[in-house]
Amino acid sequence: MNNLDSKKLLKRLKVLYVEDDSSVRNELVSLLSNFFENVFFAEDGKQGLELYVEKKDSIDLIIADINMPNLNGIDMVKKIREINKDIPVVFVTAYSDNDFLSEAIKLKVFEYIIKPIDIRKLMTVLTELASINYHKFMVEQQNKELKEYKDIISSNNIVIKTDENFNIEYVNKLFCDITGYNKTELLGKSIEVLKHPDTQENIYNDIKLSVKSKKQFNERLKNLKKDGSFYIADTTIVSQLNDKGEIIGSLIIQKDETKEVIKRREVQTHLIKDKGEIFIKGKENTAQLQYEINLLKESIEKLKAELRKAKNEKDKYIYTVEKYTNENKKLKLELKQMKKEVDTFEEKHIMVKKINKENADLKIENKTLNAKLENIELHYKKEVKQVSVNYEVKIDDLEQELSTLKEKLNSVENAEVVAQKLSYWKEKAKVEAKKVEKLEKEILNIGDKDILEKLFGKV
User: Fold this and answer.
1) Which CATH superfamily is domain 3-140 in?
2) What residues does the Response regulatory domain cover (predicted)?
C-alpha cells in the first residue's frame, strides 16, 4: 500500500487515546491528529470508559496505557468488551509482564507496544488496523448491496430453492401470491409437482442435467397453480454450490409472463379476425382485385423470365468458376508432382554423390589391401622357398648319408650290426619327417589361406 492510500485509510478512523501521563498524551494526540479524522482522549481508565460509552458510535479504535489511576487499562477494556466485543484495542505500556500479556490476549487486544513508543511501529500497526477496518467496511457494503439485490429480485420475481434431489426447500412470498400455495405447503416435495400437463415430458430431465453439469437453464415454462390453473414464467435455474464447489441444490428464478403471453395471444386472435374481415371486404371488390392480380401475374412472369435469364448467367458463371477451379486444382497437382520429382531428383543426386564418394573410398581401401596382400604373398613365398631349400639340403644330406651307409653296409660282414644301424637311421628319418610335418602345419596355421592355396593348391 502506498503512502497516499495509507493516509486516506487512516483519515477514515476516529480514535480514543487513554493515557495518564500528560506530556506523553499531548505529544501523541498532536501526532495522531495529523492522520486521523478525530482523536478523543482521556486521562485515566474511568474517564476513558465514560468517553467511550458517550461516543461509542463515533470511535473505531482504542489506544490505551495499562497502568493508570482510578481504572487501569485492562479493567477498562474488559468493561468496553461488554459493550463491543470487536472494537480493535492497542495497549501502549511501560510493562512487559507476562500477566499483562495474558490478560491482553484474553481481551483480544490487536497489538501490545512497549514504551518508549516507537512511532514507526505504532503507525505501521495503525495503518494495518485502518486497512482491516476498511476491508471490513467494504465487505459490509457488499453484503448490504447483495441483500438489496436479493430483496429486489425476491420482490419482483418468483424464487424457489431446492436440495440436490430437486425437492423444494424454500419459496418466496411472490410465489405464494401467484400460485396460491403457502410457504410450507410444498416443502420437501419434488419440483415436478408444478409441472403442467402441457409441458414436455423431458423438460425436467433437461433441468436436472443442466444443474448437475453446473450450467444455467433458461426456458419459458408453464406451471400449475394450487387451484389447477396455470402461470407462464420465464425461468432461469442455476446450481447452488458449497465452499468446496459441490452441488447442494438449485436456485430457480421465475418472471411471471402470464399476462403478456395472454395479451399476445389476444392480439393474434384480433389479427386473425381482422384478416377475415379484410378477406370479406376483398370479395366485394373481386373485379378490381382480379385486374390487379392479372397485372401482378404479368409482373411475376416478367420477373420469372428475368430470374431464368439471371439463373442461366449464374449457371454459366458457376460453370466458368468450376472450370477454372478444376484447372487450378490440376495445375496445383502438377506443381506438387513436379516439386516431388525435383525433391526426388535432388535426393537421388545426393545419394549418387554419396555412393561415388563411398566407391572412391572403397577403391582406395581395395588398393591398400591389394598392396598388403602382395606384400604378404611375397613374404610367404620367400619363407616357403627358404623352407623348401632347407629341406632339399637336408634330403641331399640324408641321401648322401644313406649312400655312405649303404657302402658301409656292403663292407660290413656282421648282418646284426647292420640291421641295428638301419633301425637307428629309420627312427631318425621318422623323427625328421615328423619335424617336417610339424613345420608344414605351422606354416598352414600362420599363413593366409588364399596365398597358401595359390602356392600349394587347395589343402
Assistant:
1) Response regulator (3.40.50.2300)
2) 14-130
